[in-house]
Amino acid sequence: MQQAHIAGRWLSTVHRYSYIFLSKTFAEYGIGQGQIKFLMILFEQDGVTQEHMAGELNIDKATVARAIRKLETEGYVIRKPHESDRRANLIFLTDKAKGIESVIKKEMTHWTETLTHGFSDEERQTAIELLKRMAGNAVKEVESMEEVKSNETAE
Amino acid sequence: MQQAHIAGRWLSTVHRYSYIFLSKTFAEYGIGQGQIKFLMILFEQDGVTQEHMAGELNIDKATVARAIRKLETEGYVIRKPHESDRRANLIFLTDKAKGIESVIKKEMTHWTETLTHGFSDEERQTAIELLKRMAGNAVKEVESMEEVKSNETAE
DNA sequence: GCTGAAAGGTTGCGTATGCAACTAAAATTG
DNA sequence: CAATTTTAGTTGCATACGCAACCTTTCAGC
Fold first, then answer.
1. Residue B46 phi/psi, 5° resolution?
2. Does residue B144 share a domain with residue B76?
3. Do both A49 and A97 map to the same domain?
4. How many domains is chain A partitioned into structurally?
5. Which of A120, B62, B118, B128 is most enclosed, with most CB atoms within 10 A?
């Protein structure tokens, strides 16, 4: 085996090039790479809170707030106040967003196919599964670091 | 198979949590996540140009310039003018950097082990190999997009 | 050897992100 | 039910990054 610490390098390269690709691809729609993931969530389940998205994507709620605001400004989503919890908003797709749903999904699929070009079906499946497990491990580790920290300050 | 476009989600989660972990881990040394990759390059080969690093990591030369400046400010590297090419600098590690080389490598290995927790040796190996191929595919695709663009403007 | 193109670096600007601090509205608890 | 804690969201600040424009220096072609 090579140096174990080399994994992060490829990960970081894939991430940065995904950023470049998605930014260029959706620029003509006024959508940045950072907003796509929220649209993808909404395509699955429309009308959720920002908190829900933050939890679903394991992303900071401040980042959610800004991404949703940008999408709202561009006319892709609207915020409706939650009827029984006045702290929360529910986020809904507009027709403008629904109109480009298929384009977005097509490009996302295209990018995944690009990344896994030359992979066998099995390798493609394995790649996704291993990445999912890595994501789970990453989240668990960082959360355990935070627990340690909050226990310390509580003493 | 699930939706193909789901791969990017895990990728992005792993990347963001790597960012969080590495930022926290190296904060006490005055080193950010963004500088680590350059130190790793220098641990392999000391005394290279910024251009070399940009090529090696497929990273923008402006980002290299800023990361190296930060490392220089913190006393981890020095820039020496290239003796035969007055445009270029050669970047060398200081003793301060060499003194924490083992710590950095240890933490990087630890993080990789965390990400691949519960993986068999074969899965760990596969994960690294598939990521490497994905990175290669990503770079190739974006470069081909740029070629198309420059051909268009040249006409 | 000039001239124009290419290469190495830097800086300005914009985006995506995390963290900390904040507000306002629930929810919990004594 | 009043006081405290938690939750949903926003804003300020800092970091990492890409792209474009720029400056020097080097190189290639004539």
1. -80, 150
2. no
3. yes
4. 2
5. B128
Q: What is the pLDDT of residues B18-74, one digit of tens each?
A: 999 999 999 999 999 999 999 999 999 999 999 999 999 999 999 999 999 999 999
Question: 3-class SS at B81?
Answer: strand
- Statement to judge: residues A122 and A111 lie in one domain: no
Tokens of A68: 């949703």
Q: Are B22 and B80 part of one and the same domain? A: yes
Question: Which parts of A27-120 fold into alpha helices (H)?
Answer: 33-44, 50-57, 61-73, 95-99, 101-115
Q: Are B67 and B22 within one domain?
A: yes
A33 touches strand C (CB under 7 A): yes
DSSP A155: -
Which of the residues A13, A40, A150 would you substitute to probe the B interface, choosing the one with the greatest number of B C-beta atoms within 10 Å? Answer: A13
Domain that holds residue B29: 4-99
| A6–chain B nearest CA distance, Å | 8
pLDDT of B152: 56
Phi-psi category of residue B36: left, alpha or beta, with phi > 0 → left and psi -120 to 50 → alpha: alpha
Dist. CA B148–CA A132, nearest whole Å: 34
Q: Which nucleotides of C are covered by protein (CB under 7 A)?
A: 7-12, 15-21, 24-27
CA distance A127 to A117: 12
Q: Contact B111/A8, CB-based, under 8 Å?
A: yes
**Helix H or strand E segment including A93:** strand A89-93
Is the domain of A106 the same as that of A121? no
Residues 84-103 of A with CB under 7 A from strand C: 84-87
Q: Are residues A73 and A91 in the same domain?
A: yes
Q: Could you report the per-residue pLDDT of A90-124, keeping only the tens digit for each? A: 999 999 999 999 999 999 999 999 999 999 999 99
Residue B119 phi/psi, 5° resolution? -85, 145
3-state secondary structure of B107: helix
Mean pLDDT along residues A51-80: 97
